[in-house]
Amino acid sequence: MTLRVAASVGDRLLDRALATAVARAGAPGRIRFTERQLYYELCRVLRPSHAVPRRLPLTPAPPMRYERFEEALRRHGAVPGLLAPVSAPAPIPVPASADAPRDPSDPSGPSDPSDPSAPSGPSEPDLYDYGLPRLLVCQSRQVARMLLANDVHLEAACPVFAADDLPLDPRLVTGLGRVDGATVHVLHDASVDGIALAARVRDAVPGVRVSSMGLVPRHATALHLISPRGPAPGSGPPALPAALEPRERDWLAEGRYAEVESVAPARLLRTVLRLVRGPRAPGHSVWTGLRELRTAGFMTWPTNRPGDTRTQGDKPATRNPVQG
C-alpha cells in the first residue's frame, strides 16, 4: 500500500514537471519540437542548471529513464507543438535559394513536414538552374524535421537535409558550385559518429566548403547538456579532428555523447539561424552587437534567470564552433 501511494505521488510530481517542460519547450511563441527535445527539457526541470555553478564544466547524466518519460507523456495526452516521431526516412522539401525568386503560391514553400502529402521537391523545373549559397545537413532526421517545421529553411534561405539523404542530388551539388564561397553546414551530436559526419559530407560534396557547427564535447560541457553514456568506441573509431582538445578525446573515449536535441529548442533555432546566415553586414552599432552576444549561439553560459545568458569571455576556445 505504501509503495503504491509513493508511486502515485511520484507520478503526480512528474506530471507537474512535464507540464512545465511542455510550456518551456514551446516558448517563446509556438515553437515546434521533437519528443526527445521535450524529454531533455523535462530533465532540465528535474535538474535545474542553476543548481550547478555556472563556471563548472559539466555534462550530467539523465535524471530519469526515457521509459518513465514516455509513461508520463501518455498520461499527459496531446501536447501542442509536439512533432510526431519519424518512423521511416521521408523526403525533405527543398526551398528556393536566396538567388531565386519564390512564388508565395508555390507549394514548395512553408509546409508541414509531418504531412505525408508534403511535396518532396521544388515544383519549378528551373529551380536547380540557380546558384545555392548554403545548405544544412543534420545528423538526425528528427532535428532536420524540427528545423523545417519552424521554417528555418525559409528564414535562412537554406535547404535542410538529413544525413540519411546523402548522397545529395547532383543538381544541388552543381548549384553549390555556382556560388563562390558556398558552404555546406553540418549539425551533429557531440559523439564519435557525429563528429565524423563532417568528413562524410565532405566526400559527398567535393570542391565545396564544409563547416561543422557542432556539437563537440566542449560545447556540451559549457552548456551543461545532459550526457548519457553508451559503449566506448571500438578499437578503430573514425579519425577525430585535430582541433579537439585532449579532454574532449577522453570524454568521447568514455562513451559519452550529447545529442543536438538536448539543446533547448529556442536556443537551437537561434544558433542555427545565426551560424547559417553568417555574420551581419557592418552598420549596426557596437551596443547592438553587445546585446546580441547575450543571446548568441551554443557557446554562452546560462545564468540563474530564465532567458538570460552570459558569454564566456575568458575562454575563446569554447565560443567558436569547430570548423570541419
Concise account of the structure shown:
By secondary structure, the chain is α/β, with parallel strands linked by helices. It has 11 helices and 6 strands.
Q: What do you see in this structure?
A:
The chain has 324 residues and is α/β, with parallel strands linked by helices. Helices cover 36% and strands 7% of the residues. The chain is built from 11 helices and 6 strands. It has helices at 2-25, 35-46, 66-76, 141-149, 152-155, 170-177, 192-204, 217-223, 246-253, 265-277, 286-293; strands spanning 134-138, 160-162, 183-187, 209-212, 300-302, 309-311. The protein has a 4-stranded parallel sheet with strand order 2-1-3-4, with helices on both faces. Strands 5-6 form a two-stranded antiparallel sheet. Strand 3, helix 7 (192-204) and strand 4 (209-212) form a beta-alpha-beta unit. Helix 1 (2-25) packs across helix 3 (66-76). The longest helix is centred in the N-terminal third of the chain and has 24 residues, at 2-25.
